[in-house]
Design goal:
The protein has a single domain (2-190), classed as Cyclic Phosphodiesterase, Chain: A (Alpha-Beta Complex), CATH 3.90.1140. The chain is 27% helix and 39% strand. It has four helices and nine strands. The protein has helices spanning 11-27, 60-69, 103-117, 147-155, and strands at 2-8, 32-34, 41-49, 76-88, 91-101, 132-138, 164-166, 168-177, 180-190. The strands form two sheets. A five-stranded antiparallel β-sheet has the order 2-6-5-4-7, sandwiched between helices. Strands 3-1-8-9 form a four-stranded antiparallel β-sheet, covered by helices on one side. A hairpin with a 2-residue loop joins strand 4 and strand 5 (91-101). The mean pLDDT is 92.
Length: 192
């Protein structure tokens, strides 16, 4: 099964992200496939296609879960605010929200997590960590450099959310479907 490690964000943050989706859709209708609130999260590490928890010793989700459980990480605070246009602002195939707050602590935590799961994961992430929450993906065949879209994205602002405490993170399975992925929490890891 496809799996990843992620931080969930509060419903109040998701509501702000949905409001921005609505503003973009109003100004540039039909360009993006929007992320539903149940899919909004901060990915810490994409594990790829993994064997289930019943896999042989030292492999699969069971090994990831055991390794991650051994990490001791203190709670920290994050906020969400500002738009990221990926992979580049001139052709924004992905619209995402920036993640701020205790950014240095988030990066240290993500690096420890990455170091812990790298050899256990089916997918070997080599790109640098860029904390964000995806809120929309350009629909196939839509021009990412359209003037209407660029103008709308330049006019929309995502104000910083209040800070929220990150007290846990999750191991999540992902099943791809015609309407997009469906996520299910496999395990929650508490921070101290």
């Amino acid at each position: 099964m496809r799996a990843f490690l992620a931080i969930q964000v509060p419903d109040s943050v998701k509501a702000g992200l949905q409001a921005v989706q609505g503003q973009i859709e109003k100004g540039a209708p039909g360009f993006y496939r929007w992320t539903g609130p149940e899919q909004m999260h901060l990915t810490l590490y994409f594990l790829g296609e993994m064997e289930g928890e019943g896999a042989r010793a030292g492999a699969g989700l069971g090994a990831v879960k055991a390794a991650v459980e051994a990490l001791k990480v203190e709670k920290f605070e994050l906020s969400v605010g500002g738009l990221m246009l990926l992979p580049e602002p001139n052709v924004p195939r992905v619209v995402a929200a920036k993640v701020g707050g205790d950014a240095a602590q988030l990066r240290r935590f993500q690096q420890r997590l990455s170091d812990t799961v790298f050899n256990l994961a089916a997918f070997k992430e080599t790109r640098g960590f860029s904390p964000h929450i995806t809120i929309g993906r350009l629909k196939q065949g839509m021009p990412g450099n359209a003037k209407t879209l660029k103008r709308t994205l330049a006019e929309v602002a995502l104000e910083d959310s209040p800070r929220f405490v990150v007290g846990e993170f999750e191991l999540v399975s992902s099943v791809l479907g015609k309407q997009g992925p469906t996520y299910e929490t496999v395990h929650r890891f508490a921070l101290s």
